[in-house]
Write the structure tokens for this entry.
Amino acid sequence: MLQNLKPLSLYIHVPFCKAKCTYCDFYSIVGRESSIPAYLRSILKEIEQKTRELDLSRYYLDTIFFGGGTPNLLEPKHLGQLLETLLDLAQAGENMEIGMEINPGEASLENLKAYKALGINRVSIGMQSFQPHLLTFMSRIHSAEKSLSTYDNVRRAGFQNVSGDLIFAVPGQTRDEWVGDLERLVDMQPEHISTYSLTVEEGTALHRWVKAGHIKMLEESVDNGMYDWGRDFLEKSGYPSYEVSNHARPGFECRHNLNYWTGIDYLGFGPAAHSYFGGRRSWNIQNLDAYMSDIMSSGTGEADSEMISQSMARNEMILTRLRLTQGLNLEEFSMIYHEDLLQTKNDILKKWADKLVISDGHLKIIHGGWALTDEISSDLMSLTH
């Protein structure tokens, strides 16, 4: 009986890529597809080891997500092997969401049909832009046409839960180009749309260019303006926002990501993957060769871990719930942390009074405040009363 069990999410990190994007700080490596068989052996061993050391009898599998990197560089038989092993971890939930990321132009119709036959039921396509000069700047190796043809093939393969990703605030991008990208994606009618502001992350090519003065990022006011306009446009187009960067037709919200944001336990497998289980957070070695070596010698690829203290958990609940349109449930927060946020943070709530609202017992950031979510959350997370 599933009602007595807790949901569990699984994440599999596939680190292989054909090219490294200028902005990407996720762990990925180029030109190492020959290592895929060894990677598979390692990750299967890691999953088996977790099965032995963790008691998952009180859990059911709610979501599985293959991220990267580029998961579609795995052949269907490889994904099949992984899925078969993962599904042995715990009882399968009803209507389990099994998703994967794919890059435009890198998954054939034949492979897409095979992925669907394996049970994968949600696909996220990293389109990023339909403007050739912006794709070039971001080192994306696909064209706008490839995004369209890949989307068509995903539909032909039978997928009925499809997401398209776009990036805005790219140096050189105009508002008209951003409008055009959004209009084009909405015309395609995916079930879900993610929009991300281009951020400068350490260790990326973009970070080096900005630091050297070769590239100037767009002004924050322009970035925020693009964000607000895009959010309005998508809401009017039938894609309500349910999280800062995510929009979906009702019923097609990404359950895997919602589980992250609402504190559901998850296990991550593969190099650089993170886990959050039983109040403990851990993360794997961010190096494919070192990860494989450690797995084969000791059965674990873990780099480090930490126990989540009460204050850390409190702050994370504020941070993640305020990212959601539904907001932070004040009664739930009070029951868990024995704190009335309306009293302890009265001064902060007054400071942001024009950006916050309390509705249905939830503290929510209003429409005009979404671009400031991080600042508002940071103020509320401070433990000084």
In short: The chain has a mean pLDDT of 93. The longest helix spans residues 36-53. The CA atoms of residues 202 and 208 lie 8 Å apart. The radius of gyration is 21 Å.
